[in-house]
Design brief:
Length: about 230
């Protein structure tokens, strides 16, 4: 790699990191292209020439970060089969609660750009691919029945994780609730096709996490003040 190319890659990485930090502290709506340029220490034209604009830069920053989360999950989760499957799901949930403001800001970003470039679908697909690899391991270890369509199952699990993340970001669940729902939903979906000891282990995890999977109760309305005689 020549020096010029290396410098461009280093600048690109620096811009992505600065963008994520800005989203975490300011949120999506409050950020302008000028703000991004100042945070990234580049000119506004550089952002347009390199990424195409505000949404494209933030989108790439989010996508690159999610890829890194999945890579860490792949490296840190050393178990195989069903344990690897739940480990990946839990790792993704743990990463969200580790940086709560950043990830809550991303929900707003998704809502604002969902009709644009399909970033939420892209991230869900990345997660589904990682889940599918774990399901393939389960089938190879005879932990999963042959009749189930692994790609469909992976997409459904990914969808559950995305919905749990949205509920958490909107305040319907706390951090423990997010992880519980992700593990509960994943285990319940896989249970119907699981075999042998994997089925028993998944049932045990469901029993363990289901109390935490309940949605937080809605706050009771404040009582009306008594009339003064």
């Amino acid at each position: 790699m020549d020096l010029v190319t290396e410098q461009k890659l280093e600048r690109r990485q620096r811009m992505l990191e600065a963008t994520r930090a800005l989203v975490a502290t300011r949120g999506y709506d409050e950020i302008t292209v000028k703000d991004l340029a100042e945070a990234c220490r580049v000119s506004v034209p550089t952002i347009y020439n390199t990424f195409g604009g505000k949404d494209e830069l933030i989108g790439e920053a989010v996508r690159a970060n999610f890829v890194e989360v999945l890579r860490r999950a792949e490296a840190e989760v050393t178990e195989k089969g069903w344990q690897r499957l739940l480990g990946i799901v839990e790792q993704c949930g743990t990463e969200m609660v580790r940086l709560p403001e950043y990830h809550r800001s991303l929900i707003g970003f998704f809502a604002a750009t969902m009709a644009g470039h399909g970033l939420p679908e892209s991230l869900a697909r990345l997660l589904a691919d990682e889940i599918e690899a774990a399901l393939v391991e389960m089938r190879s270890a005879r932990q999963l029945a042959d009749w189930v369509d692994i790609s469909v199952l992976a997409e459904q699990i990914s969808g559950i994780c995305v919905m749990a993340a949205v509920e958490w970001a909107m305040g319907f669940r706390d951090a423990d609730g997010l992880l519980s729902v992700m593990v509960f939903g994943t285990s319940m979906l896989v249970l119907g096709a699981a075999r042998g000891k994997a089925k028993e282990a998944l049932m045990a995890r469901i029993t363990e996490v289901q109390p935490g999977a309940k949605a937080a109760p809605a706050e009771s309305p404040a009582p009306a003040p008594e009339a003064v005689p």
